[in-house]
Design goal:
It is a single chain. The chain is built from 6 helices and 3 strands, in the order E-E-E-H-H-H-H-H-H. The radius of gyration is 23 Å and the shape is elongated. The protein folds into 2 domains: 50 residues, no CATH class; 125 residues, no CATH class. Strand 1 and strand 2 form a beta hairpin. The chain is mainly alpha-helical.
């Protein structure tokens, strides 16, 4: 025992003495705050304690993020290849639906190509594919963790950004900017943008 730290037998997990109860509590990398925080409504994918740890040791999480990026890159590339592939004919239902949108635009005198593009983008990629990407449990018998939800949100956001006509300015405050700036550098940080 050194100071108020103990090392559990056979483990590499630092322990803190619980003076009040006379027991030992495990903690990971960062000592949790002394005062318990009141429960807050859940925001984002990180809980209160996880958010503290994420702020305390960003290098560890950045390393984990980059290794996760390397693991998932092939799967994400394959997903986008399947969704955006032109090697197979467009499904008839999609072709007929897009033809209907073109007819409606013509019938109502809408000649702005951006408007027609937005109609098509909002219907198939944003309403269909984004919903499946963010909620794989709708199609597959899987459960997703908070971490997986965060990864799927980044992939879905990248796909949404790819479907818009606007130029995207990335910075520290943009949703994907921090990942791309902290990653490999510049626009290629996650490789998904």
């Amino acid at each position: 025992m050194w100071g108020n730290k103990l090392w559990g037998l056979g483990t590499g997990t630092p322990m803190l003495e619980d003076v009040d109860e006379g027991g030992i509590r495990p903690w990971h990398l960062v000592k949790p705050s002394e005062e318990p925080e009141p429960p807050r409504p859940r925001r984002g994918s990180l809980r209160g304690g996880e958010r503290e740890r994420a702020k305390a040791i960003p290098e560890i999480y950045l390393t984990r993020l980059l290794s996760m990026k390397g693991t998932l890159q092939k799967f994400v590339d394959d997903l986008f290849q399947v969704i955006l592939s032109t090697s197979r004919p467009v499904p008839l239902a999609v072709k007929y639906f897009f033809d209907l949108l073109d007819e409606q635009a013509q019938q109502h005198g809408i000649s702005d190509q951006d408007t027609i593009h937005i109609w098509k983008t909002n219907s198939l990629p944003l309403r269909f594919w984004i919903n499946i990407i963010k909620n794989p449990q709708f199609v597959f018998d899987v459960q997703t963790s908070d971490n997986m939800d965060a990864v799927l949100l980044v992939i879905a956001q990248t796909f949404m950004d790819a479907c818009t006509l606007a130029d995207h300015k990335l910075g520290r405050v943009s949703r994907l900017g921090w990942i791309q700036q902290e990653g490999d550098g510049g626009m290629g940080g996650m490789g998904w943008g």
